[in-house]
Write a structure and sequence with these properties.
mainly alpha; 0% strand; 10 helices; single chain; Helix Hairpins; 256 residues; 2 domains; 72% helix
Length: 256
C-alpha cells in the first residue's frame, strides 16, 4: 500500500459507534471523584460526611452493576477482567476509601470516546438518539439534585432547634422522596432554609420527570421509519424514464 492509498483506506474503514452508556458512566465517575475529594477535605465529624457516604454507596452500587453488565457481555471474559475489569471492580467496592482511586481508570473510557470522533460527534449522537440521551441526562440531573439537596437540607437542619431530618440517611431519603414527588411525609425540613431547599427540589423534580415523560412518549408514539431511505428526485426521474422506454417497446411489439 502506498502513502497515497493509506488515507483512502482510512476513510473507507468502518466508523465505531460512540457509546453513550460509557460516556454516562464516565460522567458518574467524575461526580463520584468529586464526592471523594470533598470527603477528604471536610472534617471527619462534619454532618455532611454521612450524606456523602450514602451518596458514595449509591455510586458504588451503579458501578458494581456496570461491572457485572460488562462482565456478562464480554467475550472472552478474561480479556475484560484484566486489566480494566479488575480496576473497575476494585473501584466499585464500598466502605474502603483507598480503593476509590481505582475509579480514575474509568476516565480512560471517556478519553477513548472523545478520541473516536471528537466532541462534535458525541453531540451529534446525543441529538440523534434522543430517548437514550434523555434517560442518561435525567439520571445524572436527578443524582445531582439528590446530592445538593441532601447536603443543603442537612446544612440547615443541623442548626434547627428541633429538626426532623437528623442524619445523612434521612437527608438522602428526603431528597429522593421529594424529587420523585411521592411525599411520604415521614421526613421533612423544619427550618426556613430547609423548606426553601425543599421548594427548589420539588420544582426541579417535576421538571426533570416531566421532560423525561414527554421525550419517552414522543419516542414511542412516533411512526417507525422505513428500513429503506426515501427515494430522491433523481431516483424518481430515472424510474419514469425506464417506464417510458418500456412503454415504447410495448408499442413496437403490437401487431399492425
Amino acid at each position: 500500500m502506498t502513502a497515497v492509498d493509506a488515507p483512502k483506506a482510512a476513510d473507507n474503514a468502518p466508523v465505531e459507534q460512540v457509546s453513550l452508556y460509557d460516556l454516562f458512566i464516565g460522567i458518574l465517575t467524575v461526580l463520584s471523584l468529586g464526592v471523594m475529594a470533598v470527603q477528604f477535605i471536610l472534617a471527619p465529624d462534619a454532618p455532611v460526611q454521612e450524606v456523602l457516604f450514602v451518596m458514595d454507596l449509591l455510586f458504588c452500587s451503579i458501578f458494581l452493576l456496570d461491572f457485572f453488565v460488562h462482565l456478562i457481555q464480554a467475550k472472552p471474559k478474561r480479556s475484560y477482567l484484566w486489566p480494566h475489569g479488575i480496576m473497575d471492580f476494585l473501584g466499585s467496592i464500598p466502605t474502603v476509601p483507598a480503593l476509590r482511586f481505582f475509579r480514575i481508570f474509568r476516565l480512560f473510557r471517556v478519553a477513548r470516546i472523545l478520541r473516536v470522533g471528537g466532541p462534535k460527534r458525541v453531540l451529534h449522537e446525543f441529538t440523534s438518539r434522543r430517548a437514550e440521551s434523555a434517560l442518561y441526562v435525567t439520571v445524572i440531573m436527578a443524582l445531582l439534585v439528590i446530592l445538593f439537596g441532601s447536603v443543603s437540607v442537612m446544612y440547615y437542619e443541623v442548626r434547627a432547634p428541633d429538626p426532623n431530618i437528623k442524619t445523612g440517611g434521612d437527608a438522602v431519603w428526603w431528597s429522593l422522596v421529594t424529587i420523585t414527588t411521592v411525599g411520604y411525609g415521614d421526613r421533612y425540613p423544619t427550618s426556613a432554609g430547609g423548606r426553601m431547599v425543599g421548594v427548589l427540589t420539588m420544582i426541579v423534580g417535576i421538571g426533570l420527570f416531566g421532560v423525561l415523560t414527554s421525550v419517552m412518549a414522543t419516542k414511542f408514539l412516533q411512526p417507525k421509519e422505513d428500513a429503506e431511505p426515501p427515494a430522491t428526485r433523481a431516483d424518481t426521474e430515472q424510474l419514469m424514464a425506464q417506464l417510458r422506454e418500456l412503454s415504447e417497446r410495448l408499442d413496437r411489439l403490437e401487431p399492425k
